[in-house]
């Protein structure tokens, strides 16, 4: 079946046509953009256990990856520089490969319970300096490398998205059991999941054990 294709008559292709659809930007929305980490920005980052990092490869193919760790896991090296530890994952290395081709990155820091977020844009470098990595150890395990970000833009992002989504409201939490497990979803979409429920349950249990062994 053919996918949706927008009518060219209704496609916005230039900045001026886009801006004509919206009211003028509030002056503070422009002024708030800083080129270094203020005390407030550093405080926000030090409280955050979660950041999303957006990258692109040389051809412009985009990717966004979540990174999480104990509160304050992103190290503030100075007011112009951050370091993000790279913990064990599935070794696709999408983010890291993209950075080797295109060092421009976008970060969004999230704090549980906060509706506003902090956005940081900058230039990333992959670093395996032993002293830096050792300072980012958890459970006596240092990361293999760190993503060091030279900060170019920093600004707070308003609460509207989080309030619309009611992300932190317990009465809007959804029951994870209403969807298949991660393992079953992947198998359904690739090689096929086993029909035997006990076999499937064992695979789910094995994944949970793997989480415990390989978080760091």
From TrEMBL:
The Pyridoxamine 5'-phosphate oxidase N-terminal domain, residue ranges: 40-158
Record's compositionally biased regions (Basic and acidic residues): 195-216
Sequence segments annotated as region (Disordered): 193-216
InterPro entries: Pyridox_Oxase_FMN-dep, Pyridox_Oxase_N, Split_barrel_FMN-bd
NCBIfam families per record: PPOX_FMN_DR2398
Protein name in the entry: Pyridoxamine 5'-phosphate oxidase
Source organism phylogeny: Bacteria, Pseudomonadati, Pseudomonadota, Alphaproteobacteria, Hyphomicrobiales
